[in-house]
């Protein structure tokens, strides 16, 4: 008789999770239980149908994981939350980081006391959802200098308490937005969005909290994606949209402020690259153990073991870099160059890892009946967003040479 199969080690081969406090480890276990029960059984169907499961948001809110660092958790824990979400479903992780690490974090960082009072609790508890509207149809990597969306300030008229344009809310001056944004995650269904626009008066970049139902806002879902199909990306057009001065982020005065938010979200996308590799290793190893060819498990072939070990090495090296970056965050030393190195390096390792995983599954690796096909496809989005591999590489190149290769 043979005994039970030995328990195999996890992809966290060096045990970085053990660096968390006991309460953090317990909270991460609670998240895993939620993901296993509420996300994993259904994620493939959502992805195939390109549908977002709005019904899970109240259950997700109960976990109280919005902006973990703001709640006193470590930066390592915050990163592992995104990695674990990605490990189960990349799309849900992407929703989470767009809403919490961009929209909610912007309220913490740049919102006035009055804006925080109006929005922060509801957004943190997912009673309202948010988006981050920066990228434009003609401007992605160069949006800092090329931003075409415009904001025009209309002063309040004496004796009226509001700008001359009718319909402006909140009294005081009114801003009028015109322009277009593209690839806006959560854009089709969000209640509010943080919209970035260039001030016509002085050319400075401003940020606005825009009610997505305002007259002049139109939203169209981007169709036919091959990655992150559950995420609802939108084309958004603003035509003479009137926004009250009370809804302008008072703490945002230049694109440099944008960079602070993007630095944080770029870190989280790098953690997604970790989660994507953990998922690829999990799926590939299980398949190799279960699948038999030539009378024995695939996992018993030398070349398969070599690929699995390479995948594991990439994942562990990626976790090590991100654990180091979390320590830099704790010390306030995680500057953009270091963040860019993590994003570019992990993106490259992730691409290699998921390609090997897909190869181990053979033809089954291109059918979404097997999760590896989704892992493989979703990796392409991670490789590109929050700074493409190339742009992040050049940010690091500028830091280490003192010369910019970016026009």
List the keywords:
407 residues, alpha+beta, seven-stranded mixed β-sheet, 12 helices, 49% helix
Question: How would you briefly describe this protein structure?
Answer:
Helix content is 49%, strand content 14%. The chain has helices at 22-39, 43-49, 57-62, 75-88, 90-110, 113-124, 143-146, 255-290, 302-330, 336-360, 371-384, 389-401; strands at residues 130-133, 150-154, 174-184, 192-199, 205-211, 217-221, 234-244, 292-293, 296-297.
Regarding quaternary structure, what we see is single chain
Report the order of strands and helices.
HHHHHHEHEEEEEEHEEHHHH
Q: What's the overall geometry?
A: globular
On the 0 to 100 scale, the average pLDDT is 93
Termini Cα gap: 69 Å
Helix content: 40-55%
- Total strand count, please? 9
Q: Count of helical segments?
A: 12
Per DSSP, what share of the residues sits in E-state strands of 2 or more residues?
A: 5-15%
Low-confidence stretches: 162-170
Structural class per helix/strand content? alpha+beta
For the largest beta-sheet, the strand count, sense and barrel status come to:
7 strands, mixed
Radius of gyration (Å):
22 Å
If you had to describe this structure to a student in words, what would you say it looks like?
By secondary structure, the chain is an alpha+beta fold. Helix content is 49%, strand content 14%. The protein is built from twelve helices and nine strands. It has helices at 22-39, 43-49, 57-62, 75-88, 90-110, 113-124, 143-146, 255-290, 302-330, 336-360, 371-384, 389-401; strands at 130-133, 150-154, 174-184, 192-199, 205-211, 217-221, 234-244, 292-293, 296-297. Strands 1, 2, 3, 4, 5, 6 and 7 form a seven-stranded mixed beta sheet that branches. Strands 8-9 form a two-stranded antiparallel sheet. A hairpin with a 5-residue loop joins strand 4 and strand 5 (205-211). Helix 5 (90-110) packs antiparallel against helix 8 and helix 10 (336-360) packs antiparallel against helix 11. The longest helix is centred in the C-terminal third of the chain and has 36 residues, at 255-290. It is globular, with a radius of gyration of 22 Å. Residues 162-170 have low confidence and may be disordered.
């Amino acid at each position: 008789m043979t005994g039970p199969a030995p328990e195999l080690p996890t992809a966290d081969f060096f045990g970085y999770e053990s660096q968390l406090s006991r309460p953090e480890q317990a909270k991460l276990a609670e998240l895993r239980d939620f993901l296993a029960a509420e996300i994993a059984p259904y994620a493939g169907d959502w992805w195939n149908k390109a549908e977002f499961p709005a019904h899970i948001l109240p259950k997700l809110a109960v976990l109280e994981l919005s902006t973990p660092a703001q709640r006193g958790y470590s930066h390592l824990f915050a990163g592992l939350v995104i990695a674990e979400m990605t490990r189960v479903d990349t799309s849900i992780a992407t929703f989470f980081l767009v809403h919490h690490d961009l929209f909610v974090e912007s309220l913490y960082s740049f919102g006035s006391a009055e804006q925080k009072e109006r929005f922060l609790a509801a957004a943190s508890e997912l009673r309202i959802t948010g988006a981050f509207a920066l990228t434009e149809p003609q401007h992605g990597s160069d949006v800092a200098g090329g931003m075409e969306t415009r904001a025009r300030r209309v002063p309040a008229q004496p004796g009226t308490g509001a700008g001359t344009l009718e319909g402006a809310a909140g009294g005081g001056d009114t801003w009028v937005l015109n322009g277009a944004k593209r690839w806006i995650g959560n854009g089709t269904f969000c209640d509010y969005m943080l919209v970035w626009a260039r001030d016509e008066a002085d050319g400075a970049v401003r940020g606005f909290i825009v009610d997505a139902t305002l007259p002049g806002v139109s939203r169209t879902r981007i169709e036919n994606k091959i990655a992150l199909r559950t995420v609802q990306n939108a084309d958004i057009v603003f035509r003479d949209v009137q926004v009250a001065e009370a809804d302008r982020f008072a703490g945002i005065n230049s694109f440099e402020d944008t960079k602070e938010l993007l630095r944080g979200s770029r870190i989280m996308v790098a953690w997604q690259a970790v989660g994507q590799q953990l998922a690829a290793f999990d799926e590939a190893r299980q398949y190799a153990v279960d699948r038999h060819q030539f009378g024995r498990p695939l996992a018993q072939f030398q070349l398969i073991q070599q690929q699995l070990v390479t995948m594991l090495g990439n994942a562990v090296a990626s976790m090590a870099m991100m654990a180091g970056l979390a320590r830099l965050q704790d010390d306030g030393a995680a500057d953009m160059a270091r963040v860019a190195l993590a994003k570019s390096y992990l993106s490259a390792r992730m691409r290699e890892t998921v390609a090997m995983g897909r190869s181990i599954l053979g033809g089954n690796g291109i059918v979404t009946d097997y999760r590896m096909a989704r892992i493989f496809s979703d990796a392409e989005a991670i490789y590109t967003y929050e700074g493409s591999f190339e742009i992040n590489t050049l940010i690091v190149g500028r830091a280490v040479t003192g010369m910019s290769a970016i026009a």
